[in-house]
Amino acid sequence: MTDIKGNKGEALSLSGAAWTLKPTDPALLEALQSAGHGRVLAICLSHRGAQTPALAERLLRPDMGALHDPYAMLGMDVAVARLERAIRDKERIRVVTDYDVDGTTSSLILQATLKILGGQGVSYHIPDRMKEGYGFSVLAAETAAKDGIQLIVTADIGVKDHAAVTRSRELGIDVLVLDHHLPPGEDVPDDATAVLCPPQLSCSYPNTSLAACGVSFKVAQAMLASHTSRDRILRSMLKLAAIGTVADVVDLLTQENRAMVALGLEALNEDRHSPGLASLLRVAGVTQGSITSRELGFRIGPRINAAGRMETATRVVELLTTGDPDSAKAQAQELDELNTRRRGVQEAMLSHAMRQVPEPPPPFIVVAEVEGPNWHRGVAGIVAARLRDTHNRPAAVIAITPGGATGSARSIPEVHAVRCLESAEDLLDRFGGHPAAAGFSLAPEKVAALRERLEAAATEQLNGKTPVLVHRADATVPVQDADFTLLRALEGLAPHGKGNPEPLLLLKGGTVRNTRLIKDKHLKGRLMMGGQSVDFIWWGAAQHRAAIEGKEVEVLAKLGVNVWQGIERLQLTVEDARVL
User: Could you tell me the pTM of the whole model?
Assistant: First the structure.
């Protein structure tokens, strides 16, 4: 490829990205090193908000003390009182949640809490992605009324579903909303009995970054406060909260989220599990004792999501509540097969989508096709993310059906996805989401107009400039210092996720040897310096083999371990490379 020159004339990386080192405060670095932390760990701690040695210790050792008082959340006292009354009076309660990992783990936590405390009329509903779409619908409210439901608890949906909440109230049903999706400046439903949503105005809860499963866990924490088995039950629920928190990509630098995931991982690695969870872990190929947030995000989460994407998320609830080991084994295998099917559809859809992207790519990529065997709305968000990552542009993927068009958008840091959709609000039937991810629906004939609006909105947010991908490394490390001692020191920064990524290291002074291709897509080899070497893998980088074999390079990589036949070997996961 033609080298792209940086500001000082040096060639950019093989991926065409610019590299930069995150700035470090020398005084803070000295203080952290004086407290006993090695140079690289101290640098990484400073980049993750550890402004004092005491904060560094809190970050490295998350525990139950990081879980805030649930009653500090606006509406918690009202919600708990209403739930306790419903249990006491034997009311019929329905838990209504989203169909993703956050929604299904929320449903499981809430159902378990209510049943443990004696709830006898507890049911649940998860919308069918294909038939109902996203959110708490008026139809769901009316169905609940026909079923004699007296109290609805929503989780991961509801805060923007004003019409459904109002309709519930008209039908004599109280609604408790547990959510985290409230955009700045928007109001919560006035007709809800209580809204538990930390980002809402007047809520002073210290953690505004809870996932919905985190909010659900706080409800459990409040309601089970005097239960004789509280600690054991909450520890078990933290397994689900950890999975949902990681999968929903919320901030893992907040002390509470970090503690939930760390404690949940501890329970996943050390405790006995229900037949359903044990079977899910087995088909996901994870080994108890070595489960990390990576396994939650890339092995367990996708299998849970596959149910809601390809069929119905009720499969997940059925699996994780069964007490029959044989049934659990069969159900987990079916879930794994759904995930395999999802991957096949996803790859075919991505291939179709890539062919639609013009060259050069526009400021906001929008691709659309009629839904069919190789174009499925259930994986639109994944494909949009792949388009974004490939082209470094915000991207939206739309599936057109007889009932209308639905789309998912994924964006880059410079472009706010929801604000782009707001610029086309008059074209959309509904929309919502976050700066980096959003969903929407509209009439098929409006897709072309939407494309124009999104391109114009992205151009405005980018000030007309072409976005350049920038990799920001934590620290520079000589190849010979990339060893198990450094790896073990950096492991204290886990669990990793949004806000707390795995440390990205700039390794200098190595020569690439012994490269080979894995599945014709990935590149594996060794980085050598003098008599020392370290293995590396570079996912999806087969095209760079000729450019780096035998060359002296510097790489951006994450330090990890590859275990083969019980033997641990240090391994770099390369993100990018530059030939010297």
Answer: 0.91
